[in-house]
Amino acid sequence: MANYRKRGSRWYFQIYTGTDPTTGRKQFKSKGGFKTKKEAQLAAAEVEKEVFENTYVQEQNITFQEFTLEWIKTYRETSKISSVRNRQHNLDHLNRFFGNKKMKDITRKQYQAMLASLHSAGYAFNTLDGIHATGRMVFRKAVEFNIIKDSPCDFAKIPRKVETVEEVESSKGEIKFMEKEELIRFLNAAKESGIDKDYPMFLTLAYSGLRVGELIALKWSDIDMYKNTLRVTKTYYNPNNRTKDYQLLTPKTKGSIRTLKMDAGVMEVLKKQKEHQKDLIEKMKNEYTQLDFVFAKEVQNPGYPEFLKTVNTHMRRLLKISGINKELTPHSLRHTHTSLLIEAGVGVKEIQQRLGHGDINTTMNIYAHITENMEEKASQKFSELMRGSLDL
Q: What are the structural domains, with CATH classification, of the chain?
């Protein structure tokens, strides 16, 4: 039965809720701030009902930071290091707002205000989505462990910037890729003026549609020279760009694990790359660390996988040499591969499987962007052809 007392002009109640199974001590629920005794009685009745029905949760005094320190340890045991890194980054944001607060005292209003504050500070939607996803995971686990009764994340919404008409009209959402003629120029530049392994590396990217991390992680054991196939089972991860601190992780999605049929001409180039590497190993002997990577470093820690940023730097150089004035990255070769598959009449499902997209919607979005771009260029070419022929 509840006890009621008045402090100043406000009422509060105290209810016995049971015994702590660990310490054997009696536990009580106290709450105040009610304007009338009737309000206190109604609130107490709700708690008594939960105690009677054995649904009452004795919320604990642990702080958000204390709980998340334990949570991330458990999460680390079953997750990839890249995922742990992302979750920890998101927790850093959450701890700025809630670190010293008790888990049980964080309200839905406070949680929503946190999202609004980050949005106002200019954080992108995808960043907020990651922070919110981590918050939901943490509070869901706290509910599961009876640390809190309800999650403050429930019903929270990520704020979105409302675009003006001008912003919508000026937004291009363009997926950048090379035209067939540009790709030929680029690959010729790589062949004639490339540094080290530039030509086989960019040729493989262009003909496979691999993600750059998948390319760097390729080992000779992944390549079947007799069947002309290339097996994708891993991706390169090295956020700090330390040569020997890299990791080989499982690919982005389940669908990313795949076997690709490759052009016979590309396989001949890869055979030459293997011979070149053998000669290099023979020449450098113990200086070369044999790790079986197809596109390994040739200077400064030879044998270790190449840095992603080095691939990007080499591509910028070759774009300049080939006179292609577009802001392109190695990932653009993946989009180039897709555009040429579309031009060749390959179906969406086949493209999805070749690119290793887990969700066909990802493929459909790229397909839609590229075909729209192709249609626009077709219209421009027709206009150029007819220009001056007809008085419109």
A: 3-52 (no CATH), 64-168 (1.10.150.130), 180-382 (1.10.443.10)
